[in-house]
# Entry
Amino acid sequence: MASQTSECDVLVIGLGPAGMAVTIMAKSLGLNVIAIEKRKIGGECLNVGCIPSKAILRTAKLRHAVLHFPEMGLEAIPSPKPINPFARVRDVVKRVNEGKTAKMFESVDVILSKGSARFIDSHTVEVQDVRKIRAKKIFICSGTTPFVPNIQGLDGVGFLTNENLYDINEVPRRFAVIGGGAIGCEMGQALFRLGSETTILNSADCLLPRGDAEAGHLLCEEFRKEGIRVINKAEFERIEKRGYEIAVILKDGSEIICDKLLVAAGRKIKLDELELKNAGVVYDNQKGVKVDAFLRTSVKHIFACGDCNGYRQFTHAAMHQGMLALINAMLPRVFMRRYKDYIVPWSVFTEPEVSQVGETEADLQARGEKYKVIRTNYSDYGRTTADGSEIGFIKALCTRSGKILGVTIVGESSGEMIHEFGLAIQKGLRLTSILFLQHSFPTYSFMNKRIAEQWLMDYARKPLFQRIAKMRI
Ligand SMILES: Cc1cc2nc3c(=O)[nH]c(=O)nc-3n(C[C@H](O)[C@H](O)[C@H](O)COP(=O)(O)OP(=O)(O)OC[C@H]3O[C@@H](n4cnc5c(N)ncnc54)[C@H](O)[C@@H]3O)c2cc1C
# Structure
């Protein structure tokens, strides 16, 4: 078949959050955009990541809530049987795809290719040997795939990843997860609450090892109280298929038997199929496409944004980078924006919810920086008692003068509360700015103000301030 060549201003490879942000913005600016997607519009986030995981968590949370009826003054009723919660998940994804997403891309030239896009040279990309696209600016937004650890026997047991977890139809009787990061914790809790006997096999010494250690330990404690089995520092010997069962054998000789095994052990950046070398783009299969401070690759008119450059692999970070990369592609160097200047909060949607922004104690200790810890517990607030959500804390790390360096929040609505601190860190604000902002009572965010009050109280207790107060009153 003769190859057809199209010309455009902007070519986007991959339509996950990063590519969607570039495409929609470029289209709104009246640019001629072509986007190539080899699987489904929406990328990992919409199809096999954030949205399906939140949908299954929601059903699980609802089912779990029944257990708390008596303590909320309601009649105890048995937990409802899951009929097919995964069908709902698929329906949610379908509705988002067919409704919101399809509408956004109605007027965009999207090539839904069966195979990968590949570079011919630094301005030309080919799709399936039949269509060539020449573009002025190219945005690589190709994301990641699940990382599968090298454990003897794993390949032969028919394990699940996030790519096929949502295709199952029944809640397994016994469920095990390899990985104690965000996906492992969210899906471990979701399946447990839907009725699976669940084991999380985590090779680190606490859950969510990239975040605050205290948060990871509290989550582990809560999981165990609920009945989820968490094995930290798990060392794998081998994995075997035994009839319908899967046996995970650990180095200490213990065996975990399950019906379904989810591998959630991190992400892998897969770039070879793009043939980046034809364009002269430098990359590393582990670290991703190499970018400068402005998201430009080694070839200045080619940008790489989102998970494929290896930096902070979250949907909001991918979208933000997409927006910045497009801005940078249009502006002279002096007006370009550095992507690392923007703070990246994150949340894990377990119960208790865990959210983090800025630095952790481990980060600061590694750099030998001095910091103060200001904290407040959820249990000290009337609203959380009213709601029965007293588990959790806010921990803010700041300088002596109240400059905020990092914040961890564990507990109900932490994902909503963290942004105030994110803005404060990004803008270099001190805790006084939060102190003098009235927060409506009794919101969960009111506890953010309590942190600032706490910091002020620490000052007020100093003899010097107490002497001044006595003199001035
Ligand atoms: C289970 C799970 C839950 C998650 N939950 C959250 C969450 O709650 N919050 C959060 O912030 N993040 C979450 N994430 C992470 C989030 O999904 C990713 O950070 C985000 O999707 C990255 O966006 P992206 O655009 O960089 O890449 P992707 O979403 O991976 O999209 C890349 C797209 O490029 C396409 N592509 C790749 N190579 C080619 C090629 N050669 N040719 C053509 N097309 C190509 C792929 O098919 C894909 O559609 C979750 C991830 C998982 C797995």
Notes: The radius of gyration is 25 Å. The pocket of flavin-adenine dinucleotide is lined by residues 13-19, 36-39, 43-45, 49-50, 53, 116-117, 141-144, 162, 183, 273-274, 306-308, 313-316, 318 (CB under 6 Å). The chain has 13 helices and 23 strands. The mean pLDDT is 96.
